[in-house]
C-alpha cells in the first residue's frame, strides 16, 4: 500500500506544479488555493509512504513521478518542447523510477 500512497503523492506533486504555473506568481486566488491544497496532500501522502519505504528511494520516486508528470503536462497544456532529446531524458527518469522500484526491499 505504501507504493500506492507514494505514486499518488507524486501525482499530487504534478497537480501543485501545474497550479503554481496557473497561479501566475500567486496573483490568482483559485490556482493558488489549489497549489496549497495539492502540496499539502502530496506531502501528507509522502509522509505516510515513508512509514515503510526507505527515504532515499521514496523521495527519488516521488520527485521522479512529479518530474515526468509535469513534463508531460507542460507539453500538453503549455505547448512546451517535445523534442526527442527531451523525451529521451524523461525516459531515463522513468527507467530510474522503475529500477528503484525493482531493487527496493518493500
From TrEMBL:
The keyword Transmembrane applies. Its main location: membrane. The chain crosses the membrane at residues 33-50, 57-78, 84-103. Signal peptide: none annotated. One of its GO terms (biological process) is xenobiotic detoxification by transmembrane export across the plasma membrane. Belongs to the drug/metabolite transporter (DMT) superfamily. Small multidrug resistance (SMR) (TC 2.A.7.1) family. Gdx/SugE subfamily. It comes from Limnoglobus roseus. GO terms for molecular function: transmembrane transporter activity. It is a multi-pass membrane protein. This is Guanidinium exporter. Gene3D superfamilies: 1.10.3730.20. It holds the Pfam family Multi_Drug_Res.
Amino acid at each position: 500500500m505504501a507504493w500506492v500512497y507514494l505514486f499518488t503523492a507524486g501525482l499530487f506533486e504534478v497537480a501543485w506544479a501545474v497550479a503554481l504555473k496557473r497561479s501566475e506568481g500567486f496573483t490568482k486566488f483559485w490556482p493558488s488555493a489549489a497549489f496549497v491544497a495539492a502540496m499539502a496532500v502530496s506531502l501528507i501522502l509522502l509522509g505516510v509512504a515513508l512509514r515503510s519505504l526507505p527515504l532515499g528511494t521514496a523521495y527519488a520516486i516521488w520527485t521522479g513521478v512529479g518530474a515526468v508528470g509535469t513534463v508531460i503536462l507542460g507539453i500538453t497544456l503549455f505547448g512546451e518542447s517535445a523534442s526527442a532529446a527531451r523525451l529521451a531524458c524523461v525516459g531515463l527518469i522513468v527507467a530510474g523510477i522503475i529500477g528503484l522500484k525493482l531493487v527496493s526491499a518493500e
